[in-house]
């Protein structure tokens, strides 16, 4: 009798598991996972490079509806575009949705950065980063950033008739990161970091096949070199902090090393991996934003005139040689609205990934535990039900920030997941635009408004412009 009962129980269990699996598979979102490992990765990457990625997403939504399954960068994925999806991604508790980038990004940047951590680990490391990047701390660095921008213009713009904007903006933002966040002065060490970082970027959104001829392999090797360099820098900063009494807030690395206590200490790997992340976020996103502002000001004389008027009023109130201050930045309201609208139309971050930590019911379908969740910023940024005439460049949209629906404008994320470097990016952008518009006029050398994504937006030829210096005020 006991044997019969055991067999019956076993059969019932098998039946339950089979019917549950069948029921779950029937409730998976529509779509196809495609070819193993490759999935839809190549078609998405091709669309991004052809600047048709928004259409690619829209076609998926038309074909499958507002939620669909696919495979991206070697992982089963669910695409969930829209305002409700953004809210789910940015506000879900740490036990439901976890931070997770693509396998290629995770292997290149490391698995202990805040884009990978969840729960208490995420809060601990995020709080450590915010302790350096919060506005009250950044106020003291406005003058230092001012000096970096002036020095950059003297080295790379002064005396030139023509410059290419994007590569120069990448040099500027990398210099600012090295000086303010890493405490690395100009020289061979900084040059070596930049050379390897360029290799890293090439393989961030790639199929994670580690063969010698692939972009992914080249990026992995460059990542290993940079991580070794960062560890050496950490060693030097630790000596300065412990033996020479260096200020804990002289740079981000020293700040993270100075954190003490069992509950909030940051490991060396966490410092290294978050430095890798900050390097990526601060370098590419800001350089892209600045480049497209330059292009948009050239294309929109009325907007350029309004920005120039605001910045000249600030410049006229200063003695020659005075550095910009935190109070000056607070007056640059229109300029920042121009930057916000630029981020809406040409968001540096096309989209991002999360991981389902348990089965999630969403939109009438099941997102299985362990699957990747893909969200895309353009699906709300260019939604005409949220932003009227979305293709039109209109900074007035951001005159009243409260009028923008929550979780519809997400270039920096949202909710508790908002980018901790938001304020740093604002300062960097405003200081740079101030000196560009007050010192130069320019016109585009290429009328082609095309741009591709690789994965960040890249304008044709890197945006060459003809520049004319202005007479001092």
UniProtKB/TrEMBL annotation:
Names of required cofactors: heme
Gene3D superfamilies in the cross-refs: Cytochrome P450
GO cellular component: membrane
MF terms (GO), sorted A to Z: metal ion binding; monooxygenase activity
Record membrane topology: Single-pass membrane protein
List of residues binding heme: 419
Statement: the UniProt record of this protein carries the keyword Iron: yes
Keyword Nucleotide-binding part of the UniProt annotation: no
Subcellular location as annotated: Membrane
Keywords attached to this entry: Heme, Iron, Membrane, Metal-binding, Monooxygenase, Oxidoreductase, Transmembrane, Transmembrane helix
Pfam families: p450
Annotated family: Belongs to the cytochrome P450 family.
Record's protein name: Cytochrome P450
Higher taxonomy: Eukaryota, Viridiplantae, Streptophyta, Embryophyta, Tracheophyta
